[in-house]
Amino acid sequence: MSKALTYLAKARPEAATSLLSFYKHSVQALDEKTRHLIQIVTKVTVGTERGLRQYAPKALKAGASREEILDAVLMAFPAAGLNKVLDAIDIMREMDLLPEVAQESPTADSSLRLCTVADLPLQRLQTLQRPSGDLLLYRTDNDTVLVYSARCPHSKANLCHGTDHGTQVECRVHNWTFDLASGACLQPANGKTLQVVATEIRDGQLYLLSAPT
Ligand code: FES
Whose CA is nearest to atom 3 of ligand 1? Predict the structure, then answer.
């Protein structure tokens, strides 16, 4: 429940109870995924970023695909107009809730220089956005940099938008948390790991050997 509704429940308990009861009981035939997708349409139409940020992840969690979420955003177009739809797409892209579009060939930037190793802080998460796939970089010591695909092994959310906990990164979609020194998922401890991307260091420069898949 939003902070505003929590406040209203205390300030105007009778009104809030009726309102919450309406939300709870008015829709009975639609399944959860459909309800959340329709919520996306209404939030885009009204132009409420907060509502969009609230309901779009719920739609994904309820089983909606990223393609269906994009469809829901576009369904708002006749009522919302182009600007609101484009604003919503920006938000959804930032939250990594939209399908990926074709990138240039994964091999096009393989074997390329990523960065100067000395520029990377020790034992801190660094993110790198690349056409062939975004990366997580973690320099463990002067000569070792661990490089992972930024795709969350759960539902492929982009961990570049995750929460940086220093030696760990937390996915914003379902909160899986990964140890950057090992790549292992710690929360929950489910045996999943980040995908390691092959790199090498030459003359103090970090080079990509293969594009993340
Ligand atoms: S996509 Fe579900 S935890 Fe990352």
Answer: 174
Are residue 77 and residue 14 in the same domain, yes or no? yes
- Give a yes or no: residue 100 inside a domain: no
pLDDT tens digit sequence for 18-42: 888 887 788 888 999 999 999 999 9
Residues with Cβ within 8 Å of 1's Cβ and at least 6 positions away in sequence, in order, are 9, 20
Q: Would 102 be classed as within a structural domain?
A: no
Q: Give distance in angstroms: CA of 159 to centre of ligand 1.
A: 9
Does residue 176's CB lie within 6 angstroms of at least one atom of ligand 1? yes
**CA atoms within a 13 Å half-sphere pointing along the CA-CB vector of 208:** 28
Residue 213 forms part of a structural domain: no
Q: Is the pLDDT of residue 2 over 90?
A: no
Q: Which residues pair with 200 in a beta bridge?
A: 207
Whether the CB of 174 sits within 6 Å of ligand 1 = yes
- 149 forms beta bridges with 135
Question: Model pTM?
Answer: 0.55
